[in-house]
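Lab notes, practical 5.
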Amino acid sequence: MSAPIEIKSAEAVEAFDSFSRAFEAFKENNDERLAALERKGHADPLTEEKLARIDAGLDETRARIDALALGRARPPLGGVDQGAGGDHNPLLREHKSAFDSYIRCGETGGLKQLETKALSAGSGPDGGYLAPPQVESEVLRRLSALSPIRSIAGNRVISGGLYKVAHSVSGPASGWVSETAARPETDSPTLAELSFPAMELYSMPAATQTLLDDAIVDIDQWIADEVETAFAEQEGAAFVNGDGNAKPRGFLDYTAVADCSWSWGNLGFIGTGVADAFPASDPSDVLVDLIYALKAGYRQNATFVMNRKTQSAIRKFKDQQGNYLWQPPAGMGRNATLMNFPVIEAEDMPDIGAGTTPIAFGDFRRGYLVVDRAGIRILRDPYSAKPYVLFYTTKRVGGGVQDFAAIKLMKCAA
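Output from the prediction step:
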């Protein structure tokens, strides 16, 4: 995972302090609720209502902290050295200048000249022109911050439309021998070929010609700002629930089987023991079962994935010593933890309910792969929505499970 973002602004510090105070109030009120349950068998409705308000406030404050962290992490595109060569590369500078002319006034001459210099800029018949590498790298970086699964998954950038990889199902074929001993033949490894096609994702931001004519407006920055949220929302949904039809395949689309019957090609699940919820007594036990269903090699880099409502329910869980299992972030730009493992909030995960899988746990860097085809294309359209200029922006992305042993699910099932 990326390094934590250090945020020093007074607003961010105030928001984090407010979050910490709210969690202390949450624990105090939840302790009161639990005590009432033990004494009377039911909680005071006023206490329940107050707890719900504090819980909602925690989510709102955390969203505010995340927004501040993301805003602080966005450097101006025009003022950053973009990787190898950056703005010192004459061809990249020329590409950026020609692209700026195309976006502002539809001038394609500069981009067409680049094609003769062996710098691929795309063409009109191909569906637009390639954005400069600065724009592409910034959009992908922002998607890693906005798209929850992308932020923890493995990633490959490809030049074609399909990525294939062979994965050893049975593990490596190897053995121990002494220096002079004969080398016995090892068993042949069992390989599974996995394919990850890159599907087309698009957004169509609109601008007025007045905005485009304003020289002070950073066009690269504007494009990144406009497409990041649309791309992140679509990606986030597909990486969790996508069916693989014209979109990436989400990890919840794969067959889930009881972990005791797990086999390659399926994801193993641990049941909660209750058809539509967590058990009323010692609910933390099933979380322990989920954690240790994962092999140690995956567990050391594992992450919990759940939505806001599930996280709200988990916040109330305690261990046998009375300690809360869920803990707030230890600092700005960090994640909350559950039993010392990071928690990623993905709103596309299902709620707690009959037969649902509201929690995933695993090493997503090894378990789930996001494939990006290099290049973001932009087609300028000044005709379809006059007086606005539309920018049909496309990127190609795929995804799917690459190691079925690296992710386990929690299922609401008896």
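Observations recorded by the TA: The longest strand covers residues 368-385. The chain has twelve helices and 17 strands.
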